[in-house]
C-alpha cells in the first residue's frame, strides 16, 4: 500500500494528464456548439454568445451523413455476419476433427494475420474491380468475409471443451451442426463477443480501403465521408462546422462505447491473443 | 459414428477461399506485377511490359522515395518508443486503486475508440496557428518557434507523431495494465522490502514478468505505425514538399494519383516484406521463449 501523500500526488498527476488528453475532443465539442457567425480569435475560443446547433444543421445539409451511417451499418454488419459464420465453421472443423492437411490449411489461414490487409490495398483493388464490385458496399466488405483472427480465437475456446462431452454427444447421434450450435458455440460466448466487438470497431474505423474502393455517396462510409467533407472547397477553415461534422461521425459510436465499456475493453484486449 | 471424410474440408472452405482470394492471390499478383512496367496515364505503357527489377531500381533512384523511407523510419522510431514508454508509465499510474480511477482510465483511453480520421480532424483544429489551444499552451510554456505545425517542413512529421501518440497511448496502456494486474504482488513487495530500487525492479523483475504483453504490444505498435496513415490524408497530404509522406501514403499516391501500377506493386512488395519481418519475428520470439 502506498502512503496517503503518494496517492494524493498520483491523483493530481492523473487529473492533469486526463484533462490534457480530453482537451482536443472537449474543445471540438464546444466549438461545434458555437454560433457560426462568431469566428474564433485569440483570447476568445470557447463559448460564443449562446449555444447553437446551427453548425450541425449546416453539416447535415452539406453532406448526406445519414446515408453514410446507413452505408457503414451495412458494411460492418455484412462483414460481421459472414466472418462470424465462416470462422465458426472453420474453427469447429479444426477443433473437432483431425483430417489430412489440417495443419497446412490452418497455417495458410493464419497467413492473413501476418500480412495486414492495408498493405494489399493495390492488388485487392484490382480483384474487386475484376469482380465488378467497384463502388459497392459488397466490394468494401468482401475481402473481410474470411477471418483468420476469428477462426483462431474460436478454435482456441472450442478446444477447451471436454473431449468426453463431445464423444457422448456424438454417441447420442448428434449431427455436426447440432454439436456446433448446442455444444460448441454456447461455450465460446465470451470469445464470440470479444471477436464481434473488435471486428465492429476495426471496420467502423477503417478508412483507406473504403476510400479507394468507392466513389459515390450512395456507398461511401462515415470515415471516407468525413474526409471528403473536410476537403470540400467551400468549407475552408470553418472549425465550428468541421467540428460538428466530426461529432456527427464520432459521438454515437462513443456513446455505444460508454454503455458497453467492459465488453469493449475485453474485445480490445482479446485482439492481444493474436 | 461414421467418420465424415469431406465435411471438415467443406467447413474450412469458405474461410480458406477468402484468405486465398484476398491474401495469397494478391501477394502473388504484387510479386508478378512488380516485375512489369505499366503506367495507366502513358499510352505507350498501358499494357504491361516485362521490366525485370526495373521498378525497384527506379524507386531507389528516386529522391522522393528515399525521403519517404527516411520519413517512415523517423516516424516509426519516434512514435513507437515514445508511445510504449509513456503507456507503461501510465499503466503504473492507473494500476492501483484510487478515487475516480475508472474515470482517469477512461480519459486516457478514450482516443482509442475514435476513428483516426476523426482524431486527425479534431487535432487539425487543436493545432491551428495563433488561437489554437496547442499553440496557446506552448506559448504559456515559453515556446516561440513556428506555429503552423502541419504546414512547416520541419514540424509536419512531428504533428503526425503527436496525433498517433495521442490516439494509441491509452490502447497500449491497456495491455501493460492487464499484464501488471496479473503480477504476483507479494514478489514485488518482497523485492521492495529488500531495498531494490525502482528502476532495478522495473528492468530485472517487472518487465521480464510481463514479457508476453511487452512483446505483443511492441509488435502491434510497429505494425500499426506502418499500416495506419489516415491522419496523413486529413492533416498534411504528405506535404509540405514530401516531408511528411509515409510509405503507405506514398503507395496510394503512386498507384492512384500517378497511376503507376508496376511501381505500386513494387512498393506493395516492400511494405509486405517489412510487415512480415515484424509479424514473423514477434510470432517466433513470443512462441519460443514461452516454453
Can you characterise this structure?
The complex is a heterodimer of chains A (274) and B (291). By secondary structure, chain A is mainly alpha-helical. Chain A has a domain at 70-220: MetI-like fold (Orthogonal Bundle). In chain A, 70% of the residues lie in helices and 0% in strands. Chain A is built from 14 helices and no strands. Chain A has helices at 4-32, 54-62, 65-96, 102-114, 121-130, 137-141, 148-158, 163-171, 176-187, 189-205, 208-213, 222-230, 239-259, 261-270. In chain A, helix 3 (65-96) packs across helix 7 and helix 12 packs antiparallel against helix 13. The radius of gyration of chain A is 24 Å and the shape is globular. The two termini of chain A are 35 Å apart. Chain B is mainly alpha-helical. Chain B has a single domain (66-288), classed as Orthogonal Bundle (MetI-like fold). In chain B, 71% of the residues lie in helices and 1% in strands. Chain B has a two-stranded antiparallel ribbon with strand order 1-2. The longest helix of chain B is centred in the N-terminal third of the chain and has 33 residues, at 63-95. The two termini of chain B are 37 Å apart. The mean pLDDT of chain B is 90. Chains A and B meet through helix 1, helix 3, helix 4, helix 5 and helix 10 of A and helix 1, helix 3, helix 4, helix 5 and helix 7 of B.
